[in-house]
TrEMBL record:
Keyword check for Metal-binding: yes
Molecular function via GO: nucleic acid binding; zinc ion binding
Alphabetized SMART domains for the sequence: ZnF_C2HC
Descriptive protein name: CCHC-type domain-containing protein
Keyword Hydrolase found: no
A Pfam match: zf-CCHC
Record keywords: Metal-binding, Zinc, Zinc-finger
Transmembrane segments: none
Disordered, as annotated region: 283-307
PANTHER family attached to this UniProt entry: CCHC-TYPE DOMAIN-CONTAINING PROTEIN (PTHR33194:SF4), ZINC KNUCKLE DOMAINCONTAINING PROTEIN (PTHR33194)
InterPro entries tied to this protein: Znf_CCHC, Znf_CCHC_sf
Length: 307
């Protein structure tokens, strides 16, 4: 049995009540009465309402004019089946409205730029038969030509075709030819792609190799960090290596010297030497000792201005 789906513009969702999307039937509408009843029956079934009893509530889903028809004829409704037959016969669209709709559909149906001629032909023939079952061949050909893509029509007019059967065979031949050309083009593209890959593979060895640039010398004075690529350190005599220029002793460098402390005097930076370190042998910094002071306790402190 063919399953039925709602035809209403508002489809049911998982959270929506089935009857909320049901549209009212209008007596002036061109909508097919049979399809509308099937849609309503589908929604009734979703809420466990059988149409053998539920059909008596259908008047709730009719507009004013259709509801008036219901009230005037409800005495003739014995059951769901009798109501359905009378309702469909009374509200079936007229032949004139059907032909008008079919004519509009035929006029609007155009072949797409890349649409196969066979697909367009079969779709347009269905619309023609819906409009008029026994339309003459010449008139059918006029309708078919009217919707062809302009390049397709130019090719079509080169041949003498006098019937829809001949047009159908022509469409099949054109479709087969287009498919063959598309296949040949795809094969050619694949061959060209393979040839390019082979050519690139052959020239890989001829391409110059990439040589990365040398690492930049990022060393700096940086408080006698003793970096191997430090320009200032590398220019010092060998005897100065591993000797602290803060306290003048060997065995460590300035950054590891525990006897140096930072102290500010009047905005200038001076280096303070503790009594716990051996006295400096000589002043070997870039600037010499500016001031010596012997405190009352007999100790020795040397302040060196390195600016």
């Amino acid at each position: 049995m063919k399953s039925h789906q709602p035809i209403n513009e508002q489809p049911m969702s998982m959270t929506q009540h089935p009857m909320q999307g049901a549209a009212k039937f209008s007596a002036k509408s061109t909508k097919d009465a049979k399809e509308w009843l099937e849609d309503l029956a589908f929604r009734f079934a979703a809420v466990d309402i059988d149409m053998t009893t539920g059909w008596r509530k259908i008047y709730l889903y009719l507009d004013e004019q259709a509801a008036k028809w219901w009230r005037d004829n409800q005495g003739n409704f014995e059951d769901w089946y009798s109501f359905r037959k009378i309702f469909e016969e009374e509200h079936s669209p007229s032949l004139a409205s059907i032909r008008a709709t079919a004519a509009k559909d035929m006029a609007d149906r155009k072949q797409g730029k890349s649409e196969p001629l066979t697909a367009y032909y079969h779709d347009k023939i269905k619309l023609i038969k819906r409009y008029e079952t026994n339309m003459p061949e010449a008139q059918q050909l006029e309708w078919l030509q009217a919707g062809m893509w302009h390049t397709t029509l130019e090719e079509f007019l080169k041949y003498t075709i006098t019937s829809t059967k001949e047009l159908k065979n022509y469409a099949i031949q054109i479709g087969a030819k287009q498919s063959l050309l598309a296949k040949i083009k795809a094969e050619q593209d694949e061959e060209e792609r393979t040839a390019r890959l082979v050519q690139q593979a052959q020239h890989i060895g001829e391409q110059p190799r990439y040589v990365p640039p040398y690492q930049r010398n990022t060393g700096s004075y940086a408080d006698n960090r003793s970096m191997p690529n430090n320009q200032w350190v590398s220019q010092q005599p060998p005897e100065w290596h591993n000797r602290c220029y803060q306290c003048g002793t060997f065995g460590h460098i300035a950054r590891d010297c525990h006897s140096h402390h930072s102290k500010t005097f009047g905005g200038n930076e001076w280096w303070y030497y503790s009594l716990t370190s051996p006295p400096p042998i000589t002043h070997h910094n870039r600037s010499q000792c500016q001031r010596q002071q012997a405190p009352s306790d007999g100790g020795h402190r040397c302040y060196v201005n390195i600016d």
